[in-house]
Amino acid sequence: MMVSSERSLRLMVEKWLTPNSAMLVRVTKIRRSRSDHGRTVRIEASRAAGPIELFFFRHSDGTWCVFPPENERPSMSASWRAA
Of all helices (H) and strands (E), which one includes residue 16? Predict the structure, then answer.
């Protein structure tokens, strides 16, 4: 299992954008969801080829990814008890 510090927002930005001293990287939008306490962050990077934007989503385990977390689905379980 991956430790959440290994998937911090800073590390994910560095992984996907590989910023250097000539590249300006900034947070352009932060969205918080009240229903599931999720967060979405839009990052913009200025490059010679033109700007690029990426969205990062915070998952329930504290990690940040470029894909949104799956919605929790209702589930049923049965627990067996010894008589």
Answer: helix 9-17
